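Q: What would this complex look like in 3D?
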Amino acid sequence: MHIPDGFLSTPVWAAAGAVSVPGVAFFARRAGDAAGDGRIPLMGVMGAFVFAAQMINFPVGIGTSGHLVGGALLAVTLGPAAACMVMTAILAVQALLFQDGGVLALGANVFNMGIAGVVAGYLPYRYWGQTRFRRPAIFLGGFLSVFVSACLAMTQLMLSGVAMPGPVLGVSLGLFAVSAAIEGGITLAVTGALERLNSNWLRSAGKAGNSGMGAILIAAILLASVGALFASALPDGLEKLSEELGIAGRAASLFQTPLADYEASFAGQDWLRKALPGVLGLAAVYLVCVLAGRLISRRALHRS
Amino acid sequence: MHYIVLDRLSRQSSYLHGLDARCKIAALILFLVAVATTLPLGAGAVVGYAFLLAAGVLLARLPPAWMLTRSAAVLPFTMAFATMSVVTGNIQHAVTLVAKSYLSSFAVLLVVASTPLPALLDGFGRLGVPVILVTVIQFLYRYLFVITDEARRMWLAAQLRGSALSRQPRSEKVAAAAGSLAVLFARSLEKAESIHLAMTARGFSGRMPALVHPRATAGDALFLLALAALLWLVRFRLGGT
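A: Here is my prediction, written as structure tokens for the whole assembly.
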């Protein structure tokens, strides 16, 4: 899901940009450090590969088919830093040449798919890739890469005041889970086929034994993305709760700012209340990403 | 294949084509920020922004009909959310979504259609985007067509072998699709390897050499100032609060 321009409110796109710019710079430096041996042409060609891979359909059932999104597959083959570069490059080309996703919204899209999606897609493989849970880990990586980015995109849209009735939100969460499971299955099938061709194409995963850390990191990312989604839907929930408790009269002054006049009340305090949890959530996710990046880089140093 | 049209259009010559890429990127960001922060978006502001874009199309001598239809690529996504706004009874918000996304998409297209991609990316690089990212985008664009053609050939070959007619179970079809993706991956790796060898032989050191060295002129600064003044006028006089 690529968010076009015109959807995100100023605090949301500005905050997402403020997180993505240092994030991409960080991964660019790490990818640049490892850029020997023809890695730069490789990253470009792999971006083209992900574009072209969309032409190959996987039959899912009842007449529908899915295709590869690629975040987890890239992370498992090229490593998270290079995968972040490739995904960012893909998003930039889509925004500029294909009118798919906005330019101001590029910060949000890069954060969702190029940073959070890639890190979430890589973590399971990083921690369980060498254990007997290797195949579930690859599946989980594909699942998380799509699910986390979709939840984050939805959160940003809702924080920006895009109308999303409860049932629609429920249905779209279900759809996210289905397409995430499809991505997991495709990632698993393709990595299996790649391993049969040449097992060197997959990165060697870390040693087993630190799976507690992995579980904590994955739980943190899931909590941050899914939690932020529910937090952005919270004002409605609070309203309902206060009505049930019979304090609707008092609460009216606090929460009676329906999305209807969201735009008009932008100049007031309202947007702050809506944007703050989002900004805090983004900051939390950013922190997790930086910590994960540190950890991965330290491990990589130890190994070499 | 609209991007082939885009490639041709971006190499025309006009006043807008002649401006420095950095100047056009800055102008685009100014325009997008102005549109994004106009709240509420009144009819006056929409007309004002549309007028500026129309002036841009004239200055760049681009085909208006093609620009109008190509920018509409954003509308399916927008319409889904706009419909939801209408259902929840907020028509104003729906109109705002459609107008803002269409205006923004048009503005991006205007800049991309009046600047050749290498010059545009060079401009982004000069404005501080990491060199490695800019270089990866250039490689991606160059080999997009090569790898897509490869995928198309593989798809055609599979069709000729009767893949659409076969009644094999779904698990085998998935295995076949996974296998062809793995083969496409392998061919992409091969291609990357030979590109790397050829480029190293020609002295590539991780950065695309610029063929032209752009220099921002007073004319660029003047254009940017004029645009900023016009945007200020539309943003604060015609619309917003």
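A: To summarize the key features: Chain A touches chain B through 79 residues (CB under 8 Å). Chain A is about 75% helix and 0% strand.
Q: Very helpful, thank you.
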